[in-house]
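Aim 2 progress update. The chain analyzed this quarter is reproduced below.
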Amino acid sequence: MFGMKTDRLHICIFGAEQSIHTRRWVLGLRGLGHQVNLITLKKDSENDIGGIDLGASNKLSYLTKIPTLRSIVGKLMPDIFHAHYASSYGFLASYVSHPRKVVSVWGNDIVDFPRNNFIARDIVKRALKAPKRITATSEFLKSAVQEFGWNTPSVSVIPFGIDLGQFQYCERPQANTVKIGIAKSLLPKYGVDILIRAFAEICKAREDVVLLIAGKGKYEDNYRALVRHLGLDEKVKFVGFLAHEKIPQFLATIDIFAMPSISDESFGVAALEATATGLPVVASRVGGVPEVVVDGATGFLVERGDISQLAQAILGLAQQPDLRRKMGQTGRKFVEERYRWEDNLQAMIDLYLQMMA
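Predicted structure tokens:
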């Protein structure tokens, strides 16, 4: 028999150990005294948090792990069985019988993957019909689930909150150079090339600006070539990949955070992390980003792919240090009130307890 009602829960998380978000949920729940088992398709040796490894060598082997997954969950008999990411873990979880099953959608699994083909659509459709409850990180993702018209259970919006101890507010002293920064994978969907072109326009109006690009990806050579073509070698610096714990240090060195994505961002964690440190954010009006960037208050929203709008918004902030400071202060308060990690963690626990009632 699966667990009875108790304030100390036994939770089985089924998700990717290599994801910082999965590890945060597991460690956060454990830190509050709950018993948490992690089952993962393949362990992350560099970030091992004691998960159970199914040993899936590639995606083709996923289905072969279903009997093992069923057996493990049957032996553990957790109060809650919670799968993270619908198109993989959520789909496999649909083959496991459990009375209190939760599936969390994260973004690409519900926004992009189902549109690939009818097989992908059916995979996600099955994943979303199986659980008792679904969680999404934003209202945008909640709508994405509901817009498919599937007969899904109720959807709770529980964001990936921000650790305000890690992402601390800091004042940026007025310096001779205004630093614009981005921290994203170097892929087209994040609009890095658009930012570089916008930065070229900014440089025509001001000389006291630099652009710092943190991240890695297969398009890095393309972006470096674009920088050279535009004659920006002296003003653009590629910082390279930064581990998550290094991001706060990077954010503390810049004055404006840019997020010019051209695809629908599911939530906008990067924007919130920047906002928490007191940075104004200039971002594309896509997906769930308008939920985390308050246009005119914590930053500016621009239309996706609009180089001129992006340049003008960043330039306006570069020219007004007082506005940057005001937006930074407003932004920090916004995150404190709505996106504290502890509050979001408690919201997940409250959901679990409702299911146990």
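The longest helix spans residues 321-338. The first strand starts at residue 10 and ends at 14. These observations will guide the mutagenesis experiments scheduled for the next reporting period.
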